[in-house]
Specification:
Layout lengths: L1 H18 L1 H4 L16 E5 L4 E5 L4
Antiparallel strand pairs: 1-2
GO molecular function: calcium channel regulator activity; toxin activity
Main location: secreted
Subcellular location: Secreted
Amino acid sequence: GSLLLVLFLLSVICYAEIAAGPTKCQYGRPCDSDRDCCWEYRCLSSGEEYTCKQDPGP
């Protein structure tokens, strides 16, 4: 029974991490894609690395 409890707790923690993903992203955080950033930011290159930045627009 205790193994199931551990698995349950792990799945809850993992789900919480995924659910909290967009809220903990901040401006200038390193990213691999736009999904790593909040909706108002985009994953843009500043020369060396990609970071979450405001979309400069068209």
